[in-house]
Design a protein that fits this description.
The complex is a heterodimer of chains A (about 350) and B (about 260).
Chain A lengths: L2 H35 L7 H8 L5 H36 L11 H14 L9 H21 L5 H25 L3 H11 L8 H20 L1 H6 L4 H6 L4 H23 L5 H13 L7 H21 L8 H19 L1 H5 L4
Helix pairs in contact in A: 1-2, 1-3, 1-13, 2-3, 3-8, 3-11, 3-12, 3-13, 4-5, 4-6, 4-7, 4-11, 5-6, 5-11, 8-11, 12-13
Chain B lengths: L1 E12 L2 E12 L3 E5 L6 H9 L5 E6 L2 E2 L5 H7 E4 L11 H6 L15 H13 L15 H14 L4 E5 L7 H16 L3 E5 L3 H7 L2 E6 L2 E6 L1 H4 L2 H8 L2 E7 L2 E7 L3
Parallel strand pairs in B: 3-8, 3-9, 6-7, 7-8
Antiparallel strand pairs in B: 1-2, 1-4, 4-5, 9-10, 11-12
Classes of the chains: A mainly alpha (about 350), B alpha/beta (about 260).
């Protein structure tokens, strides 16, 4: 084999990946335009684009730019960070079943946020909400990795994640239980289901800085995930500071998930599903999966948020409910596929 | 000339002290076999030498104190092959070998410099894995996978290779192949340290043998001295059948049952 052959072989694979990423990007743009056009007032894609750039009627401009644009930006950013966090956690743990929601991160973040709301510590639109949510998410992922240990198998991770999300759920229930104001309880209960409805640019300002910071941290670690393919010891021998990497990934995922949960409630399973959809197209390289998984996550959440507006029903379906209803059967399918590894015990 | 040395090296796993005051000095161009019973501390010694676990005492590599070297620099000097050739994702063999260039800043196998590509190709040629460079490592046989792992380590082009049981779970022919490949690498001036349980392979291929027993060096030297009758009896609790075949030393461990 010559240097030219080698270059050729890698180039073919690279071109394929770029093609797939470009197609995903186009899909995300398409879904964004659709998301801006769908609602009580239906707007054609052309009208949406016109309104977006300051044309069309005043009514259309207000609907698109002030009502639907924040919602669409949040769906894009939150879906993206969830997909990215899932791919990063799967890379860190070298495990296809890792994801923020299976580790109890959104549930823990929700507990933090609920605590702030129920105790009346801060206004729902203050930065206290995402900050406490982020701290809670960090605590949960940190605890999970500490419990699971360095070379945790699937079984330990899933059991520990189950325990942590159950605990966070119980703690949230306790807060609601102790709350004396029934209106607050009802509000929390609906908020927990996860929704993008009626979100304003204030919400975007609340979540976006944390999501961008989290995404930047996770993306900066991309190549280390590739080295981790060989296991922690070999990665360390290649110059990867594995301890620091873990801290970065936990921080990045907590910033993103905590920021997201603070404005939308819990939206699960996108982080689990997105990397899996991309592996057949992009390949298994954990570093290359990050960006496509983020785009897939964004597309999934945009699509789900469009779906909840289209599905006819007497009351609104929450988008978090929809993602879980689709996500859980997918999770079961993955368990079936990984049955051999799971059945192999705690290896 | 000494390339790698340790003075008063001690290390612990948890609260248990695994290595006690080990001092050794290894030269470039040597194939060193590290042998000892299960639990003697072979893997721990290898990890400590590579700086992968904290240890007391001093390790010097090519004139520098290991402790003073940043992670990236250590990675360029030690190529480390862990036990089991673990690969967690089904990547093509080529990408795995290319990870050997990671310490040199080539973190993306799709964007290697011509120098890195040459190093990867040299490594693949040395252990004969070019034929399946496009195949996923998870689809390869055990023997093929161990050669890919070896190629990854060679691609680092480090002055020291530390290999933890590279011949484990291979058939006899592949065991001999792997040892011969490592022998060839040592002959190019690289210091190769190999952990093995196979005293026969150690006797046949190594220049120097380190015998580890309960965290201490029980013997070291040329295979004939280090694997003497008394060492085998005290450390391994075996005797040995010794012979010469095609002008090479043969040792077959023997215990009466």
């Amino acid at each position: 084999m010559s240097v030219q052959d080698f270059a050729l072989a890698t180039e073919v694979a690279t071109r394929r990946r770029w093609g797939a990423t470009a197609a995903l990007l186009a899909l995300v743009v398409l879904l964004s335009v659709l998301s801006l056009g769908i609602g009580p007032v239906q707007l054609s894609p052309l009208a949406v684009i016109e309104a977006l750039f300051g044309g069309g009627s005043d009514v259309a401009q207000v609907i698109v730019r002030e009502i639907r644009l924040p919602r669409t930006i949040l769906a894009f950013a939150i879906g993206g960070i969830l997909g990215l966090s899932g791919a990063a956690l799967q890379g860190l743990l070298r495990n296809p079943l890792a994801s923020p929601s299976l580790f109890g991160a959104p549930q823990s973040a929700a507990f933090g946020a609920v605590l702030v709301i129920a105790l009346g510590l801060a206004d729902v639109r203050s930065y206290a909400l995402p900050v406490v949510a982020i701290i809670a998410a960090f605590g949960s992922v940190f605890a999970l990795l500490a419990i699971a240990g360095r070379n945790a198998g699937l079984l330990i991770l899933i059991l520990a994640g189950l325990a942590i999300s159950s605990f966070a759920g119980a703690a949230t229930a306790l807060v609601m239980n102790l709350s004396s104001n029934p209106f607050v309880v009802l509000e929390i209960a609906f908020w927990l289901l996860g929704s993008l409805e009626d979100r304003s640019f204030q919400h975007v300002a609340l979540a976006l800085p944390f999501i961008i910071a989290g995404a930047a941290i996770l993306l900066s670690q991309a190549s280390a995930f590739r080295a981790l393919t060989l296991g922690e010891e070999a990665a360390q021998s290649l110059g990867v500071d594995v301890g620091r990497l873990r801290l970065f990934v936990i921080t990045g995922a907590a910033l993103g998930v905590g920021g997201a949960v603070a404005v939308t409630g819990t939206i699960g399973f996108i982080g689990l599903v997105a990397p899996h959809l991309m592996r057949p197209v992009i390949g298994h390289d954990p570093a290359r999966l990050l960006v496509p998984s983020a785009l897939t996550g964004a597309a999934l959440l945009l699509a789900a948020d469009i779906a909840v507006r289209i599905i006819p029903s007497t009351s609104d379906i929450k988008v978090g409910v929809l993602t879980s209803i689709i996500g859980v059967p997918f999770f079961l399918y993955l368990i079936m596929r990984e049955r051999r590894a799971l059945g192999g015990g705690v290896a | 000339m000494t390339l790698l040395s340790a003075t008063g090296l001690s290390a612990s796993l948890g609260s248990r002290k695994v290595l006690h005051e080990i001092s050794l000095s290894l030269a470039a161009g040597n194939l060193v076999a590290l042998v000892g019973p299960n639990g003697a501390g072979k893997t721990t010694l290898l990890r400590a030498l590579a700086g992968l676990i904290p240890s007391d005492g001093e390790i010097r590599i090519g004139g520098d104190a290991l402790a003073s070297l940043p992670l990236r620099e250590r990675a360029k000097r030690f190529a480390y092959l862990p036990q089991g050739h673990m690969v967690h994702w089904p990547l093509p063999a080529r990408d795995i070998v290319a990870l050997g260039r990671y310490p040199h800043g080539a973190t993306d196998p799709a964007r290697l410099s011509p120098r890195d590509v040459e190093a990867v190709l040299r490594a693949m040629q040395a252990v004969d894995v070019e034929a399946f460079s496009d195949r996923r490592v998870t689809e390869l046989s055990g023997g093929e996978r161990s050669r890919v792992a070896l190629a990854r380590v060679l691609a680092v082009e480090a002055p020291v290779i530390l290999a933890d049981e590279p011949t484990a779970s291979l058939d006899p022919r592949h065991q001999i192949d792997v040892m011969q490949k490592l022998r060839n690498v040592a002959d190019t001036g690289v210091l190769v340290v190999v952990v093995t349980h196979d005293l026969g392979l150690a006797a046949r291929f190594a220049d120097h043998v380190l015998v580890l027993s309960e965290g201490r060096l029980a013997a070291q030297g040329a295979p004939a001295e280090a694997l003497s009758e008394s060492v085998l009896a005290s450390v391994f609790r075996v005797s040995a059948y010794r012979a010469e075949f095609q002008r090479e030393a043969v040792i077959v461990p023997w215990a009466d049952v």
